[in-house]
Design brief:
Blueprint: H1 4-28, H2 41-45, H3 51-63, E1 71-73, E2 80-82, E3 88-90, E4 93-97, E5 100-110, H4 114-137, E6 148-156, H5 159-162, H6 183-196, E7 202-208, H7 227-245
Parallel strand pairs: 5-6, 6-7
Antiparallel strand pairs: 1-4, 2-3, 4-5
Length: 246
């Protein structure tokens, strides 16, 4: 595996590309039609803001020994996998080697609009993992070892994401860790529990501030769901598959 410092530099480039793509999308959208989406929706609906992360993960998989033709990324129709509760799910990255599902990875980001969007992200992540593992149990991917399932989230680092959030308890008390927890803390709890409950093999939470976009600055709220831990887990799994194949 490469020195982690090489991946750190690539991660900063991915963060920088994330902000650059969003900013360009907001400037370009609406010039022809004269209409613009409200809030941050423009930057999201235009797509491409997470491509830097996808490129980075693809390079890690290649470094682990998986050949390029076996790595598929969203937008080319090759990342669709069967589900159990639904017919299919389109993942962001799918790795298939010699008919074996090596890995699939989901990317999410949130800039502003933290309220209901967090609950949507939670439901999506739990539902997608549950669907995949049930399909795996039922033989959707033939006889093979358990694939790697990863989740990487980028959250805007701003006053709205780090301030305490009230919870409503009309009938029963919420778990105490959610009392006055910010959205940063909620995302951290989500990612940590996704891994501890074995819904995902590794998860990564990155906090990115607009003011540090030029340098690709970021911070990590938890070592347990850090980028280094995510990379090491993914690389080890992909390399083990490659070694077994050879």
């Amino acid at each position: 595996m490469k020195d982690m410092r090489d991946y750190d530099a690539a991660l900063r480039q991915a963060i920088k590309r994330f902000w650059d793509t969003r900013n360009k999308a907001k400037k370009v959208q609406g010039k022809k039609s004269g209409r613009k989406d409200t809030g941050n929706r423009t930057a999201v609906t235009s797509g491409g803001h997470l491509n830097g992360f996808i490129d980075l993960i693809v390079s890690i998989i290649h470094d682990a020994g998986i050949d390029e033709p076996n790595v598929f990324f969203k937008g080319h129709g090759s990342t669709i996998l069967p589900g159990y509760y639904r017919a299919t799910k389109d993942w962001d990255i799918v790795v298939v080697a010699d008919g074996t599902l090596v890995a699939c990875i989901e990317f999410k980001s949130q800039v502003g609009s933290f309220g209901n969007n967090f609950n949507n992200r939670t439901e999506e992540s739990i539902g997608s993992a549950t669907d995949l593992w049930t399909a795996y149990r039922e033989g959707a991917f033939s006889e093979q070892a358990r694939p790697f399932l990863g989740y990487l989230a980028v959250l805007e680092d701003c006053p709205a994401s780090i301030k305490p959030v009230n919870v409503r308890e009309p009938h029963f008390k919420v778990f105490p860790e959610f009392n006055d927890a910010s959205y940063e803390q909620r995302y951290c709890l989500l990612c940590t529990r996704l891994v501890r409950e074995r819904l995902y093999d590794a998860a990564c939470l990155l906090m990115a501030d607009r003011s540090g976009a030029k340098n690709g600055d970021y911070r990590e709220p938890s070592k347990e769901v850090s980028f280094h831990h995510f990379v090491a887990s993914l690389w080890s799994h992909a390399n083990a598959i490659q070694q077994t194949k050879d």
